[in-house]
Write a structure and sequence with these properties.
The complex is a heterodimer.
Chain A lengths: L4 H46 L15 H6 L3 H32 L6 H9 L6 H12 L5 H7 L16 H26 L3 H9 L4 H12 L1 H17 L2 H6 L11 H11 L3 H31 L1
Helix pairs in contact in A: 1-13, 3-7, 3-10, 7-10, 8-9, 10-13, 12-13
Chain B lengths: L11 H32 L3 H6 L12 H8 L11 H31 L5 H9 L7 H13 L6 H26 L2 H9 L4 H12 L1 H17 L2 H6 L7 H10 L7 H21 L1 H14 L1
The chains are: A mainly alpha, B mainly alpha.
């Protein structure tokens, strides 16, 4: 077939154009495919396994809800859930109170504010496997605070929560609040900085004291920060793994197990794949129950 | 920074209040710094001094022995080469994983915002979901997949894992940045005949430098500090440093050398601490961007 030159050039241009038009999709699709496989495909696989009788090895025979029934009749699972409840409520509460307090205090035209902020936030930059080494030592009765205070002349002082099955979970809370409260501080400080100075000045002219100004005027304005901080903290607490491993290793016994350590123990130490998968599915459902409504309202709110 | 401040009237009462304010702030500083101070001071003591001294006493005789031992000869399991080989493992894992996930996230965020096609928003939403899942839900299939591809227990396996699960975050960071860039610039470049990649590399990436820094720091900190994937997917020699450190600290055989534990912990934490001290503002920006993501 014979073509004139301009026609050929135009043809080449069209092909080039076509490629250009497809290029964005060509770039995105392998990444999207990877996320379909590694996120959605893997979730589906785990959900499927949770309905099978898999033990040490995956076994694709479906057995209905029996892994879930086993999970919910495992005492250790109840310990993990109870700990999650205690840990997450105290952790979220503690981080919110400390973080908010620090943000308000730092918002008072403080000298060396930058340096102080850096100190409050540095635990977030370090793995808790690292800082847990120190915490383990501080909380250890024979090495840390207990011995230290006894040495100060209080021989009856006792602080052995770390090795007490009933109290060990509270040491995890202490360390968790230490690690994450700076984050809440940073979120709130950014929120407080965005409040219009005029509003604050007007309140001062009206004779409102500092406490009232914050309680009735400024904090209501930064209300969205509360919500996102609580969501983030809830998310952190459900996923908490390093914290427990580094501090107590889940012990004494399994007294400080959280769902994350429970799942790991059953998956990699006891090789009960079906049960481990069922516990992972429970974790995913908990996270989704918190995140999905939040994301939905965030995305919808932004579109408006 | 802020000219606001509630405490503003002058007077003796006011001065006392400000003194109290600073006292509280400094007290909290001490609480936050305490674990770090204890780590550093204990790592510089000898074992004898640890036994006789108290928790917060400073070393009377500074000794670097614990540091040398932690670095070169401390035992992790049965392997007594110190923490150095595991630091190297972490470096070999973190560098490719950060570079690849950041680059892919940048192209992805750019394609999804500046070359909008039908379904782009849905694709982004579906990919973003990966940032929220508890990773326990993918541990079992991932372990099998890595085994299937012969990547089980290798550093490259961890690179793959961190790249795949980091993509949701890096895409989020870059998408949020590119959304704020005016479409007009890209349109003009297109009319001038520039294509997808030339616009990306010559026009978009130079504008995105702050976002690149935020993303790299975010990814570096998260991947270096990762413990869950490292302990699930590697054994012994291929452990990243966080897992090796935990093995050193958690071991209960022989005499417990607390000074060596502390020195090893500081060494393992030094890279992310250094990044934080040098580029803290970018770290905070990443945290703020991550607040939406969780």
């Amino acid at each position: 077939m014979d073509r004139t030159a301009p026609e050929r050039i135009r043809r080449r241009f069209v092909i080039g154009n076509l490629l250009e038009r497809w290029l964005p999709k060509l770039v995105v699709s392998p990444l999207f495919a990877a996320s379909l496989v590694f996120v959605y495909g893997f979730i589906a696989w785990t959900i499927y396994i949770s309905f099978t009788k898999s033990g040490v090895l995956p076994d694709y025979t479906l057995v209905g809800l029996s892994q879930y029934l086993r999970l919910w009749s495992t005492p250790r699972w109840y310990v993990a859930l109870q700990n999650l409840l205690v840990f997450s409520s105290l952790f979220i509460g503690g981080c919110m109170i400390v973080g908010m307090l620090l943000a308000i205090l730092l918002d008072q035209r403080i000298r060396a504010e930058g340096a102080i902020r850096t100190i409050y936030l540095y635990p977030m930059a370090l793995s808790f496997i690292v800082t847990g080494t120190a915490w383990k030592w501080i909380l250890n009765p024979t090495l840390g605070i207990e011995t230290f205070v006894r040495g100060l002349g209080y021989p009856d002082f006792s602080f052995d929560w770390l090795v007490d099955p009933h109290f060990a979970i509270y040491t995890v809370v202490i360390a968790g609040v230490w690690q994450s409260s700076g984050y809440v501080m940073a979120l709130f400080l950014a929120g407080l900085r965005s409040v219009d100075d005029e509003i604050v000045r007007a309140a001062a002219i009206d004779g409102a004291g500092p406490v009232r100004t914050y309680a009735t005027i400024i904090l209501p304005i930064v209300r969205p920060v509360f919500l996102s901080a609580i969501i983030v903290l809830a998310h952190i607490s459900i996923k908490s793994y390093d914290l427990v491993v580094a501090l107590t290793g889940g012990g004494p016994g399994y007294a400080t197990d959280l769902p994350a350590t429970f799942m790991y123990a059953y998956a990699f130490q006891r090789s009960e794949l079906g049960l481990a998968a069922a516990s992972a599915v429970m974790m995913l459902m908990t996270v989704m129950a918190i995140i999905v409504p939040y994301l939905y309202s965030e995305l919808r709110g932004r579109r408006r | 920074m802020s000219r606001k401040g509630i405490v503003r009237r002058r007077g003796a009462g006011q001065a006392a209040l400000r003194l109290l304010l600073y006292a509280v702030l400094v007290l909290f500083c001490l609480v936050y710094l305490l674990p770090l101070v204890i780590m550093v001071s204990t790592s510089l003591k000898s074992l004898g001094e640890i036994r006789t001294g108290s928790l917060i006493s400073l070393p009377t005789q500074v000794s670097l022995d614990a540091w040398l031992k932690a670095w070169g000869t401390a035992c992790v399991g049965v392997r007594c080469k110190g923490i150095a080989p595991y630091m190297w493992n972490s470096v070999l894992m973190v560098v490719p994983a950060v570079l690849i996930s950041t680059l892919l996230g940048a192209v992805n965020g750019y394609a999804l915002t500046k070359w909008r096609f039908r379904g782009a928003d849905v694709i982004f939403a579906l990919m973003l979901f990966g940032a929220f899942i508890p990773f326990q839900i993918v541990l079992l299939p991932m372990a099998r997949t890595l085994g299937l591809f012969g990547l089980a227990g290798t550093t490259w396996g961890l690179v793959l894992v961190h790249t795949v699960y980091g993509l949701a975050f890096t895409t989020l960071f870059f998408r949020n940045f590119f959304v704020s860039v005016s479409d007009g610039i890209v349109q003009a470049a297109k009319i001038d005949g520039a294509g997808f990649f030339p616009i990306f590399f010559k026009l978009m990436l130079p504008m995105a430098v702050p976002t690149i820094v935020v993303t790299v720091i975010w990814q570096f900190t998260n991947i270096w500090n990762d413990f869950l994937f490292g302990s699930a997917f590697t054994v012994g020699d291929s452990n990243p440093v966080t897992v090796a450190l935990n093995n050193i600290v958690a071991t209960s055989t022989g005499v417990k050398e607390y000074n060596v534990d502390m020195a090893a912990a500081i060494i393992a934490g030094l890279p992310t601490l250094a990044v934080y001290v040098l580029a803290g503002n970018y770290f905070v920006r990443g945290l703020a961007a991550g607040a939406v993501k969780g």
